[in-house]
Specification:
The complex is a heterodimer of chains A (505) and B (123). With 505 residues, chain A is an all-alpha fold. Chain A has 20 helices and four strands. Chain A has a two-stranded antiparallel sheet. Chain A has a two-stranded parallel ribbon with strand order 3-4. In chain A, 70% of the residues lie in helices and 2% in strands. Chain A has a domain of 196 residues. Chain B has four helices and no strands. Chain B has a single domain, classed as Helix Hairpins (Orthogonal Bundle), CATH 1.10.287. Chain B has 123 residues and is mainly α. The chains are: A mainly alpha (505), B mainly alpha (123).
Chain lengths: 505, 123
């Protein structure tokens, strides 16, 4: 039992409840408390990262119930990595939000913190049904956040997003029910033990359940046939919300990594590698679709929303190999793409504020105010996202390319990823040169002021890609250890035999 | 018993899916509700359908699994909250767009067809 594990859940929970009661408190007080909560959460996440780096599994069993009977929180390297990634992104989004986005609704901070609560539960939980509950917590907060802001443009994309996710939840429940009806357990470690022992006649049920789980996680992660909700929803959300949502698709990817390496991994007998032969082609088609969307995007926000889909395709292609090298490359790329996409959403919003009525549309307009600062940020973000040297995206893509082993995989992955990157580069250079260079006569009335909280948070997120290059050694070492830990599932199932009662520590 | 149960779940799910594919928000909301009913019943049945069982092993001939009921309870609560939210959201969409079409407005092709139908009905 390690009580630190509850910290990333309790901190945003308590902070969020406080915010819910403080809707009419002075805004300075609400902002201070909200930022303090996010900072505390980041500290807790870093503590857990240091704890998890010794490679052992830490367990928190609610009510001291011996797993698999109660709900457990499990901390391993992957969970800690996701927690830190989310906390860093959330902190900068939050700093950006106090630059003015939070003024239009009294409950913005509460919703923001509840969103983080849901994300943290999803990363820490060791129980399939609890994962469903975590998804619902983060989804209902995200519905509120997505609708946040002025104007009516968000209603329709918001409605689509909500209905689609409700249908997804229904499929998730059916899958959970199917798996439970055969195995009699929902604890992930216990499932990993029970799945190989499933009787012959029950195999199709578990198989169907597993594939339906893949569909649900694919919907969250926005894999191709299920990705068309994303550009509309993300490009209409306010900037800090869109930037935070960069991590939402990664929850789906986290769930795919967790469930399909642990439960349907190499040791799962007849069901090992379930769905992975579907995942590779789908990932490559998703990547292609993202590139086509990026080339045709009419505004910077749409372009970055399609960039999120490109990164999903790239990540899943590497994950579908099911090897240590593939997973560790994907984890390195995951960090890079989440922070950079979040930063780019913030930069697009800054550009929007400096261009008057042209907003962030990719059209010629009068010369944008603060051009040098914003164009350098956009350039850095684009270079990191496309994967050009010297920024971190280059190393990440290189690792992914190197992780392909068999000849056909190499041929497909290299050609799609490299040609895709080339066309993404064209999309970014087209957008950047039109927005920043091609000017018409005229001037912009009252450009938005670049206050410190706006410019610092946007540039900090983008410059994390430089930090990642400097720290590439330790980060890739951590990613490799994480992947090795993930693929050695026997250690995870040992948490079942850890005694809960009478342990003093 | 099993057959009746399966038919009910199937009918609920099929009508739910059909209604969700409609173009107006009201049928979509009703469809989501029916789908969640179907799912709840399905989840309930994952502990096997049996009467007179005891939830404690060894206390009676047949053992009845209490966990699916806990799962269904959670799913009902969550589904209820989500339905309330989606109702409010559809009303908001109706107020914002003066139309209860799921896309906020009827696509042009459809609206011309409708107009022609109306004109046909008028003449």
């Amino acid at each position: 039992m390690n009580h630190w594990l509850t910290a990333p859940i309790l901190i945003p929970l308590i902070g969020g409840i406080l915010q819910a009661f403080m809707g009419y408190a002075p805004i300075a007080l609400r902002r201070t408390l909200a930022i303090a909560t996010t900072v505390l959460m980041l500290v807790a996440a870093i503590v857990l990262l240091v704890l998890a780096d010794d490679g052992s599994y830490r367990l928190y069993a609610f009510g001291n119930w011996q797993p698999p009977f109660g709900i457990v929180l499990v901390l391993d390297r992957l969970a800690a990595l996701m927690l830190v990634m989310t906390a860093v992104l959330a902190l900068f989004c939050h700093i950006y939000a106090i630059g003015g986005t939070d003024e239009s609704s009294r409950q913005f901070h509460g919703l923001f913190l509840f969103q983080l609560l849901g994300l943290n539960i999803a990363f820490l939980t060791g129980d399939l049904f609890n994962l469903f509950v975590a998804f619902e917590v983060l989804l209902i907060a995200s519905y509120g956040l997505l609708m946040h802001g002025e104007g009516t443009s968000r209603t329709v994309p918001g409605l689509h997003y909500v209905v689609l996710n409700l249908a997804g939840s229904a499929v998730f429940l059916i899958a959970v029910g199917m798996i439970y009806s055969v195995t009699g357990t929902l604890n992930m470690a216990d499932l990993a033990v029970k799945i190989p022992q499933v009787a012959e006649e029950n195999l199709p049920l578990v198989k169907a359940g597993g594939m339906m789980l893949l569909v649900v996680f694919g919907l969250k992660a926005a894999i191709l046939p299920l990705c068309f909700w994303l550009p509309g929803a993300y490009s209409n959300a306010t900037a800090p919300v869109a930037a935070l949502f960069a991590v939402m698709t990664k929850v789906g990817i986290y769930a795919i990594i967790r469930v399909f390496t642990l439960i349907f991994g190499n040791q799962a007998g007849e069901l090992s590698g379930l769905g992975m032969d579907w995942l590779f082609p789908l990932a490559l088609i998703t990547l292609t679709m993202g590139v086509i969307g990026a080339l045709g995007a009419a505004s910077l926000r749409k372009l970055i929303a399609w960039q999120v889909i490109i990164s999903v395709g790239t990540l899943l292609a590497a994950i579908s190999f099911g090897t240590v090298a593939g997973t560790s490359a994907a984890l390195f790329y995951l960090l890079n793409t989440t922070w950079v996409a979040g930063g780019l959403f913030l930069v697009a919003d800054l550009v929007d504020g400096q261009r008057g009525s042209a907003q962030d549309k990719i059209v010629t307009a009068p010369r944008i105010a603060n051009r040098t600062f914003l164009s350098v940020l956009f350039l850095m973000g684009a270079v990191a996202a496309v994967g050009l040297p010297p920024l971190s995206g280059f190393f990440a893509k290189l690792l992914i390319l190197k992780s392909a082993v068999t000849e056909s995989d190499v041929a497909w992955l290299w050609s799609v990823l490299l040609i895709g990157s080339f066309f993404t580069l064209i999309a970014y250079s087209r957008a950047g040169s039109i927005v920043f260079w091609r000017n018409v006569e005229g001037h912009i009335e009252e450009p938005q002021k670049l206050t410190p909280s706006l410019s610092v948070s946007a540039s900090a997120l983008i410059s994390l890609s430089i930090v990642m290059v400097i720290l590439a050694g330790p980060i890739s070492r951590y990613a490799e250890d994480t992947a090795a830990q993930l693929h050695d599932t026997s250690a995870y199932t040992e948490i079942l035999s850890k005694p809960m009662v009478g342990e003093e520590k | 018993m099993e057959l009746a149960f399966a038919v009910v779940i199937g009918a609920l799910t099929a009508s739910g899916v059909y209604l969700m594919l409609r173009a107006r928000t009201f049928p979509v909301v009703v469809g989501l509700t029916m789908l969640s009913y179907g799912v709840n019943l399905f989840l309930f049945s994952s502990g096997r359908l049996a009467t007179g069982g005891q939830p404690i092993i060894g206390s009676a001939e047949t053992y009845s699994d209490p966990l699916p009921q806990a799962l269904v309870l959670t799913a009902i609560v969550i589904g209820f909250a989500m339905t309330a939210f989606v109702v409010v959201l559809s009303l908001r969409s109706l107020a914002d767009n003066n139309d209860d079409h799921v896309n906020g407005r009827v696509p042009e092709q459809d609206s011309t067809v409708q107009k022609q139908e109306q004109e046909g009905a008028n003449t």
